[in-house]
Amino acid sequence: MDKQIREIIPEASYNFTKTCNFASFYRSKYSTDVYIDGVYSRLIETPVGLCLASASEFSRNNEPIIEVSVRGQVLNEESVTQAVNQISRIIGADQNPFEFYKMAESDPMLAPLVEEFRGLHIPQTNTVFEGLILAILGQQISTHVARILREGIVKIYGNALDFEGETYYAFPTPESLATAGVESLHANKFSRRKAEYVCDIADMQYQGNIDLEDLRNVSHHDATNKLISLRGVGPWTVHWLLIRSLEYQDGFPSGDLALQKIMGKYLRDGLIMSDSEALNYSERWTPYRSWVTTYIFASLRSGLTV
Question: What is the CATH number of domain 128-244?
Fold first, then answer.
């Protein structure tokens, strides 16, 4: 087993623990994301196969450093560099929320959230394909059911590797989901329609009819238009993908019921906001609504109430 170590210097505001807790849904292990004893680990697909990238934080001269350990059967410089770059993007090490913090200082709803979660960056999915499938998976169901589906799809269709007695899972590839087919997903708790959406997109990506990774290279307007053209993808799904996979700063899934509830709780004496009401109110937070969304959901996942 080869092992190589690299270091990342994160952006000054960065809080490793808060970001990794959010990435793992405040659990030690959440399907592909593992955060145990201060170490965040994730399987990464590289040109030489799967490797395990593990990140931890230490201090040097009072400056935070993220150490990334890359382990695999065979490693070369290309695979190590790719794994380190991907883990850095996944944990948001180079993001800068400074302007968001300035805006939030005078906002009565956001100021306490920033005080509580300052340093939390926006975790990203490993691939755009993963982000899109997870967003579709989460459509119109509770977070509990979404978690069951997410864990199921990863363990049934994803590759796995064992390191030091711990099993780590990679998100399924387009090929594995396209090959599995609708009947297999339906037999594993997916609604038939949702199974069709997932398999259609997986097959298009696998066959080369779409290139979801290329969405990183276009404007958010162009990305939105391309995504909306796909069967099963609507505004809610697009905005979560913009936030969690494409690093867009101003995504806002106004149709999200949890978001509407917490905004209504704080801003309307407990009355749930409608999609349009939430969207209209959010305009005051432009162009930092991805940060707003992330901090609101951090409060929900951690059990904090604003």
Answer: 1.10.340.30
